Amino acid sequence: MKVVVLGCGGSAGVPMVGGEGGGGDWGDCDPAEPRNIRTRSSIFLQMDNGEAVLIDTGPDLRAQLLAQRISRFQSVIYTHGHSDHVDGANEVRAVNRVIGQPIKAYGMPGVLAEIEQRFSFVFKPWTPPGFFRAVLEAHPCEIGQETAIGSFAFTFFEQQHGYAGSTGVRCGNFAYSTDVVELPEQSLCALEGVDTWIVDCFQLTPHVAHAWLDRVLEWRERIKPRRTILTHMGAGMDWATLCATLPQGVEPAYDGLSLHLPDPPRAKA
After folding, report:
1. Looking at the chain, which terminus has fewer C-beta neighbours within 10 angstroms, N or C?
2. Residue among 178, 11, 198 at smallest CA distance from 80
């Protein structure tokens, strides 16, 4: 399985709109370092058998897919309904056209309902031929229950994201936890045995809705992944500074980071 980080920025990206002369607010990030350029958070899973899964459709999706030369996937997982994770929903229309079929959308029932409310057209049945709009098929999921997505087994775990919830995703020995500030005990248990974990770390100091560095390190001590990769990073998280100061086994993501991992278990028939 190949995991591609399409974007690893917070809701405003890096640089943020603003700055001197309107050229962008970089915060503490060095604008000369290209790995500090962060689009909104999303990842892509490519299985060895050709099946592919996108996690979240942020507002930068079209540019992300073009940058990584991705044009095909059969499924999308939604972690929660915030704008920086769903506002690119209509961009999957181009992928509908490439694969010639609807795309299956997985998420908690409330999240799928929120997406349908905001993008009322996406879950309407497809009327072939052609795609004049994005077409998704809703597949509600449950926390803790194994879900077959294509040929492979995924599980979802609960996360607290400030005043709202979000969903963590585990696929074999890989897990993804964007937009999380609290992990309940059952979710920490669900993460045990994970080899590679991509996890929200918006800034160095405490935040009301996102994990910060010390919190991530506490979770890491409990879960003990071999590799911990920070995502959903704000403008206070300079890539080179993080690389120089993080403990071994912890690293910042960057847009376009590609990981090669064993394929996850097949779903039960």
Report:
1. C
2. 178
d(CA 153, CA 265) in angstroms, rounded, equals 6
| Amino acid identity for residue 110 in this structure | G
Which own/partner pairs from 93-97 qualify as long-range (CB within 8 Å, at least 24 positions apart)?
A: 93/131, 93/132, 93/133, 93/134, 93/135, 94/62, 94/65, 95/65, 95/71, 96/131, 96/134, 96/135, 97/130, 97/131
For the beta carbon of residue 265, count every other beta carbon within 10 angstroms.
14
Pick the closest to residue 258 from 229, 233, 235, 232 (CA basis). Answer: 229
Whole-number pLDDT of residue 269: 66
Task: Name every residue whose Cβ is closer than 8 Å to that of residue 28 and which is 6 or more positions away in sequence.
Answer: 235, 236, 237, 238, 241
Which residues of the chain are modeled with pLDDT < 50? none
Q: How far apart are CA 184 and CA 74, in angstroms?
A: 31
Task: Identify the CA nearest to 24 among candidates 32, 14, 38.
Answer: 14
Domains of the chain with bracketed CATH: 2-260 (3.60.15.10)
Omega within 30 of 0 (cis) for the link into 129: yes
Per DSSP bridges, beta strands 174-177 and 196-200 are parallel
CA 233 to chain centre: 12
pLDDT digits (tens, 9 = 90+) for 197-256: 999 999 999 999 999 999 999 999 999 999 999 999 999 999 999 999 999 999 999 999
